[in-house]
Design a protein that fits this description.
- The protein contains 10 helices and no strands.
- With 190 residues, the chain is mostly helical.
- Helix 3 packs across helix 5.
- It is globular and about 45 Å long.
- The termini are far apart.
Length: 190
């Protein structure tokens, strides 16, 4: 499967702009970690890009991600890709995160969403966003309240990276795709 195939599948099941941008952000972070770890960037990118492609249609557990897993199987995606996507759901207890790919997806998922939320309230968006400012927002439970903070800290710990380092890495991974994510600096400071 090519990235074009992945995008076609994503768009077949998702038309929510914010959800598409979330998947693009997680794809960018997973690709960056694949490069860092010397892993298959295309495979890791596919996992990041498609991890929530079924969420808009089937948001309730366990339909998400099991409905998506069945579609991916039908489409010929590898068991490794399907398993990694299933493993990002804590409620699927028969799919523990074992591989580095599984752990990377989990570590990047909620954090990318939170970084995006942080960037959207700043005129500079991702420019100048620091781990300390992200961590400060993490303490504000009313900010991006739907994002599970414990998933962010658990994800970094399971991946074996220090939280500040993980946050900085993901911010850097999102910067090259900032335009696609709607995170270019705002010229309107009002």
């Amino acid at each position: 499967m090519s990235r074009e195939d992945d995008l076609a599948l994503l768009h077949q099941y998702t038309d929510s702009d914010s959800l598409i941008k979330h998947m693009l952000a997680v794809e960018a972070a997973c690709r960056a970690y694949a490069r860092k770890f010397g892993e298959d960037e295309e495979k890791w990118g596919t996992v990041g890009l498609l991890h929530d492609f079924d969420y808009q249609r089937w948001p309730d557990p366990p339909d998400h991600p099991l409905k998506g897993a069945a579609i991916l199987k039908e489409q010929g995606y590898s068991d490794e890709i399907i398993y990694a996507i299933k493993s990002h759901a804590d409620y699927l207890t028969d799919c523990p995160r074992v591989s580095l790919l599984d752990k990377t997806l989990y570590a990047c998922d909620e954090l990318c969403g939170f970084i995006t939320a942080c960037a959207l309230v700043r005129p500079g968006r991702l420019e100048g966003l620091t781990p300390s400012s992200v961590k400060k927002k993490l303490k504000q439970l009313s900010f991006a309240a739907s994002i599970h903070r414990e998933d962010i800290t658990r994800g970094a710990a399971d991946l074996g990276v220090e939280l500040d380092e993980h946050i900085a890495f993901c911010i850097a991974a999102l910067q090259p795709v900032a335009a696609d994510l709607g995170l270019l600096p705002s010229s309107d400071l009002s």
